[in-house]
Design a protein that fits this description.
heterodimer; A: about 750 residues; alpha/beta; Rossmann fold; Dimethylsulfoxide Reductase, domain 2; 4 domains; 7-stranded mixed sheet; 28 helices; B: about 270 residues; alpha+beta; Alpha-Beta Plaits; two-stranded antiparallel ribbon; about 20% helix; about 10% strand
């Protein structure tokens, strides 16, 4: 057909008119609009009045008071509880985003048993009756074979009613193996015992201190109670009272009035150097040292042997020598010592990073001694021992249980080698892996913590767990350890349950907080206290008799009857009678005084030098020639480094030069980068004696050359797709370094190498 | 009706963030995301597609170890006022759908999701990267829809979103003031989620025109400055710092030009209402 002008015009005009008249283009445009903006599919949350409920966050051991906004019974947003005596209204991002975990896909929704291989993730739902009978049959069988001591229980805390019920259960059952997960407070509490003769929670009155000397504590990134520290930060800053000792310009160092970049691992030397200056210049508190302290001067024991005192130990640490060890110049050491001793209330604190690793006893004792030198024990702005809760009911146990309790602990704590250490989870993998016959732990109850993520050298820990025939987890979330268990008995989420939270470590008053249900239980979960009562009931006999309560709530109310009114009304109870005792009555050591020479310290050599807190370089694993760099983990308030992983909101806040596209960035100084030919963003393999990980490079001037800093809390392998597989776990790259006298992990880092990927 | 709407004073809500107090903890960000139903993705380490209303940036002075200093800069929507406080904000001027508008009584720059058709001109115009685009429909896995705040509508793919100074909180406060027969709301009745959550109390919020509000004095302090002031966007988010190097980071300074030479940051008094 030939197209002439007339035909062409009629086609074009006809087409235009036709297109305009048919509904097709309009319908298509409309469809496109609807498709690009899916109105009906967006959720519309139910409206209703806001109801605010008070509770206490238990995501870490910090124990901050929270105020939860609920609408129609659902938790919406979380803020700090303004009058709560610990955090005073401040809350960390992890606490604020707790609703994401409450409603998120990481929850274990019912009791389950493993059907595939360990860690494979194949599970079958079971009833609570079956779950409880499976656990109690296993426990009954071990008891009938007279092996109750082969049961171990891991928990995150040893204080409060739930940890108490766990300990009570083990005692009635016959196992000494209650193990608290490691933290820097292991070392600090032991130092408290060695110097003051008391078991208790350590309290630092930072609010009333005029000068705070922090030996690497990540005060702004999770140390102690995060909410409390954050709320105090403005005070630290305005009053210029914080000095931070650390090789990395952390958020805490940035806030401090002075950043002292000492070489990592030399903190004890610096503390001794400061003490040297204070004693040399007679700047110490003579009243305290002369009248209430022991072992400052040389002393004679009952056999007439003369022992070296702390004062003569300090002679070995003149500023010049300490400057050589720490890399801090002499003048800074001198001026720091003078500032510390001249301020009205000075306090020195320890616990590297967010306090996940105990650290060595020398360091803790050397730092404690600084506080004693200025007499800042049980004073405003000083260090106080907060007594442990002691309101527990009596119980009786049978012969099997008594015999079991006589057995040595699996982890070697409280043994002749480590007499003053109460828990040594870090030694459990070796105890199992080196056992000739069967594993010394035949059944493991994981009632808190997430050891297969948080322990150093997680691969070795996993190997040890492989040899434990029976692992039960009470975890709320499908964490790394729960994923490796045989049976899951999920606890309620903390926003769904009752629990008491006694004085968090670092808090200078005696408080109890009440965690309580703010929403209804969402899944087929059960309170761990109730589960324990059920298991005890099904084991029968003395064990059942030790648990005479109908349920956990009844036990809780009975135990805290005196405080219940206040707990119910305010959400907390503060001991109105608690006053730090005067120096005359404060110390329960053999000498009845504060011990500069810790006479109870485990000291097989018998040498004074080994009892006194001198400086001994911690030998990091690895050969320096092959691994010229030093890996140092660092804490960040935006990354949860503990048992519970970051919810998506938290990962959203993390900068693109910390994590990006699944890769974690390690910080190195530009100088180090130049030496090793790295530039910003390069992919690399980070190797340590414990393992290797794919990382990327971020150049940061604020890090000491030669170090590699890696954030703690990434690289989870469990929880859910929203959490797993982002970055690498720094714990897997670290190795346990046993502190000689205490057995605690003194390993603050590892030798490492970086190779281009 | 027994009550009659009476004239209320014009407000210019603004924020003052003390950078010398901020420790970069991230509580403000998380509180914002929870309050405003900000969506998240399965892989939040994918920073190209991660969406947020408030980010806290880390900057350093670039000096070698150990003279390095760092500072955190929280960055919400700047709620630009335009040259003469008339709301001639970069995003408002370019929006072809009136989806983003300037609220005369409060000075808050709005974002109306039902009007937005996703052309993203506003994102191109915004010099602060305060605006984010929903490339996908948000998904709240498991029961996570249950925590959504009923006061803020969830968005859908194809729209732009940004910080609103928690305007829904203003509406609520105004409503309850109205019910109680009051014309004005108190300073503490309207606080955005980030200011409320800040554990270090670095964020102060209020009416920049009201001498009784804390922000009035703070925004007029010698330490106050704003981001990219040379663009004359006239933001209502002020920052405080005593450090000159931080101020230099906040704008493009010529060689030899110092932030100290600049005129005081505050322009709010020129408001003509």
């Amino acid at each position: 057909m030939k197209i002439d002008r007339r035909c062409f015009l009629s086609l074009v005009i006809g087409g235009a008119v036709g297109t305009t008249l048919t509904p097709v283009p309009w319908k298509l445009t409309d469809d496109i609009a609807i498709w690009t903006q899916n109105w009906p599919w967006t959720p519309t949350p139910e409206k209703g009045p806001s109801v605010y409920k008070k509770s206490v966050c238990t995501l870490c051991n910090g124990g901050c008071g929270i105020n939860v906004r609920t609408v129609k019974g659902q938790a919406k947003t979380i803020a700090g509880q303004a009058d709560y005596p610990v955090n005073r209204g401040s809350l960390c991002p992890m606490g604020i985003s707790a609703t994401q975990h409450l409603y998120g896909p990481s929850r274990i929704q019912s009791p389950m048993k493993r059907t595939g291989d360990r860690g494979q993730g194949k599970w079958e739902k079971i009833s609570w009756a079956e779950a409880i009978s499976t656990v109690s049959e296993k426990l009954a069988e071990l008891r009938s074979r007279k092996k109750p001591h082969t049961v171990a229980c891991i928990a995150e805390s040893d204080r409060g009613t739930v940890p108490y019920l766990l300990q009570r259960f083990l005692t009635a059952y016959g196992s000494p193996n209650f193990i608290r997960t490691p933290s820097s407070f292991d070392a600090q509490e032991q130092a408290l015992y060695l110097t003051q003769g008391k078991h208790g929670t350590i309290g630092y009155d930072l609010a009333n201190a005029e000068f705070i000397l922090s030996f690497g504590c990540a005060l702004m990134d999770g140390w102690g109670t995060p909410g409390q520290m954050l709320s105090a930060s403005a005070d630290f800053k305005q009053k210029n009272k914080l000095v931070q000792v650390e090789p990395r310009l952390s958020d805490t160092a940035a806030l401090a009035s002075q950043w002292v970049a000492a070489k990592p691992g030399t903190e004890a030397a610096l503390a001794l150097g400061l003490a040297h200056v204070i004693v040399r210049d007679n700047l110490y508190n003579k009243d305290f040292v002369d009248n209430y302290a022991f072992g400052f001067e040389a002393w004679e024991d009952e056999n007439g042997t003369v022992h070296q005192g702390y004062k003569s130990l300090l002679k070995q640490y003149p500023p010049k020598k300490v400057a050589g060890i720490t890399g801090i110049d002499k003048g800074t050491i001198e001026s720091l010592a003078r500032k510390f001793s001249r301020a009205k209330h000075s306090v020195a604190i320890c616990g590297r990073g967010s306090g996940m690793v105990p650290g060595g006893m020398d360091e803790a004792l050397a730092v404690f001694a600084l506080n004693a030198l200025v007499g800042n024990i049980n004073q405003p702005g000083g260090v106080t021992a907060i007594p442990e809760p002691d309101y527990w009911p009596e119980m009786q146990r049978d012969k099997t249980a008594s015999n079991g309790m006589q057995q040595p602990r699996v982890d070697g704590a409280e043994s002749d080698r480590f007499p003053n250490t109460r828990y040594l989870l870090n030694r459990v993998p070796e105890a199992i892996n080196s056992a000739k016959d069967e594993s010394p732990i035949q059944a493991l109850l994981v009632a808190g913590g997430n050891p297969l993520y948080t322990m150093a050298d997680t691969e070795t820990a996993k190997k040890a767990f492989d040899k434990i025939p029976f692992i039960a987890s009470f975890s709320t979330y499908m964490d790394e350890t729960a994923q490796y268990a045989d049976i899951l008995l999920p606890n309620h989420h903390f926003l769904e349950r009752y629990e008491d939270v006694p004085t968090p470590a670092g808090t200078p008053t005696r408080v109890i907080g009440l965690t309580r249900p703010v929403v209804e239980t969402r899944h087929d979960t059960r309170h761990i206290g109730d589960t324990l009562i059920n298991i005890a009931g099904s084991l029968g006999g003395f064990i059942e008799n030790a648990f005479p309560w109908g349920n956990y709530e009844e036990f809780l109310k009975q135990t805290l009857a005196g405080q219940w009114d206040s707990l119910e009304k305010q959400g907390y109870w503060v001991d109105p009678e608690f006053m730090p005792p005067a120096w005359e009555e404060a110390f329960q050591t053999p000498s009845g005084k504060y011990e500069f020479y810790p006479s109870q310290r485990s000291n097989p050599s018998g040498k004074d030098a080994d009892a006194l807190p001198g400086f001994r370089q911690v030998e990091l694993p690895g050969v320096q020639e092959k691994m010229p760099l030093t890996l140092m983990p660092y804490a960040s308030a935006r990354i949860a480094g503990g048992a519970v992983a970051n919810p998506p909101f938290m990962t959203k806040t993390v900068d693109a030069d910390v994590i990006r596209d699944g890769d974690v960035f390690v910080e190195i100084n530009p100088k180090t980068a130049k030496e090793h030919d790295f530039s910003e963003g390069d992919a690399a393999v980070l190797k340590t004696p414990a393992g290797k990980a794919r990382v990327r490079i971020h150049l940061f001037e604020g890090l000491m050359p030669g170090l590699v800093a890696m954030p703690v809390g990434l690289g989870h392998a469990a929880f859910s797709d929203y959490i797993a597989g982002k970055g690498a776990n720094v714990n897997a790259l670290l190795t346990d370094v046993t502190d000689p006298g205490s057995g605690l992990n003194a390993g603050w880092g590892s030798r490492a190498s970086l190779v281009k990927a | 009706m027994t009550k009659q709407a009476r004239h209320t004073k014009t407000k210019r809500y603004g924020m003052v963030i003390d950078l010398d107090r901020c420790t970069g903890c991230g509580a403000c960000m998380v509180a914002c995301y929870a309050e405003n139903n900000v969506p998240f993705r399965k892989d939040e380490s994918d920073k190209m597609l991660s969406l947020n209303w408030l980010r806290v940036f880390k900057v350093d002075n670039g000096k070698p170890f150990p003279d390095t200093e760092i500072c955190y800069i929280p960055k919400p929507c700047m709620q630009c006022d335009g040259r003469h406080m008339e709301g001639h904000s970069p995003c408002v001027s370019v929006c072809p759908a009136v989806a983003t508008d300037y609220d005369e009584p409060t000075g808050v720059v709005s974002q109306i999701y039902t009007r937005c058709f996703g052309c993203r001109y506003c994102m191109a115009a915004c010099p602060y990267h305060a605006r984010k685009f929903n490339w996908w429909d948000p998904v709240w896995p498991a029961d996570m829809e249950k925590y959504l705040n009923p006061d803020v509508s969830a968005r859908m793919r194809g729209v732009v979103e940004k910080c609103s100074f928690c305007y829904h909180r203003y509406q609520k406060a105004r409503d309850s003031a109205y019910v109680e027969g009051r014309d004005e709301i108190a300073e503490n009745e309207y606080q955005p989620a980030c200011a409320e959550a800040c554990p270090t109390r670095a964020i102060t919020f209020g009416d920049l025109l009201n001498p009784e509000h804390e922000v009035y004095e703070l925004s007029r302090s010698k330490k106050a400055f704003r981001l990219l002031e040379k663009l004359k966007t006239n933001p209502k988010v002020y920052y405080l710092t005593a450090k000159n190097w931080v101020r230099r980071k906040a704008d493009n300074y010529l060689e030899g030009e110092s932030p100290a030479d600049r005129k005081p940051a505050h322009k709010a008094e020129t408001a003509s209402h």
